[in-house]
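LAB NOTEBOOK - FOLDING QUEUE
OPERATOR: T.R.
BATCH SIZE: 2
PURPOSE: Compare the predicted structure-token outputs for two unrelated chains run back to back under identical settings.
PRIORITY: normal
REVIEWER: second-year student, initials M.K.

ITEM 1
FIELD SEQUENCE / FIELD STRUCTURE:
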Amino acid sequence: MTEPIFHPALALAELPQGRMRCLTLAGREVLICHAREGVFAVDNTCTHALARMDEGRLRGVRLICPLHGASFDVRDGRVLGAPASRPLPSYPVRVVAGMIEVALEGATAAQAGGG
């Protein structure tokens, strides 16, 4: 198995705790969330109704969709609240020398099933 390729996203100092920011990395919209538990990255599109998750709210590790209120855990993309039934794809994140980096090849929820 090959090592994932991490893409530089933004400086950790540019994303205060409790905030999130959507970036396009390698042609994909990724939402980076800075929770007390760490920095996490998930797909920016809700699996329920294709809403933009960056227009929603981040409450701790709970990401709430702006359209119908579905909620997801930013740590792994799992569904925390209906009406969504499929998890958000989530991506490996690391912080190197103050820079947040995301590995897009390592999406987890895409294989997690659900529906």
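ITEM 2
FIELD SEQUENCE / FIELD STRUCTURE:
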Amino acid sequence: MAQINLLPWRDERRAELKQEFLVVLGAVAGTGAVIVFLVDLFFSGQIQNQNDRNNYLTQNIRELDAKVAEIREMQRKRTQLLDRMRVIQELQGNRPIIVRIMDQLVRTVPDGVFYTQLTSTPQNIRIQGIAESNNRVSSLMRRLDASEWFSDPNLEGVRAEPSYGDQATTFTMTVNLQLPSAGDEEGG
């Protein structure tokens, strides 16, 4: 039999297969690296896109927060203005009432009685004065009680005051305010 030595051919074939394997391995590794790079590039782009969107939203939220703060400030100013308008309207509405109360105080004073001091609260009026006699004080109390603007006159104290006359007295009384209804006020 002829002696054929196949070892060099097998070694060459193994070297070729090994080289093909390394080329394929390199190609697969290169393709894998390219795929990983492309996937990384894609996801980096997605992340950047989302970050840009987040930044856009954050910027718009800041602008809207500034507008909300401005709106709250305007609402606070509006509330203050409405409160001022309400106070002014109350004062305007009470102005004729104060005049009517003073008019009623003048109309209820009998001859021989003089007021020395009037102190007003929202519910009542404290009257200090001088009367020629106790009968004059009683007459004043009856007139105040008969008035539609006053109720429950309460005499707090009477003191003789001889420097103004033989029967003269100083007195202190309180009378409650009783505002008539709107129809009575306009009619009177």
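REVIEWER COMMENT (ITEM 2): The domain at 89-187 is CATH 3.30.1360.100 (Gyrase A; domain 2).
FOLLOW-UP: none requested
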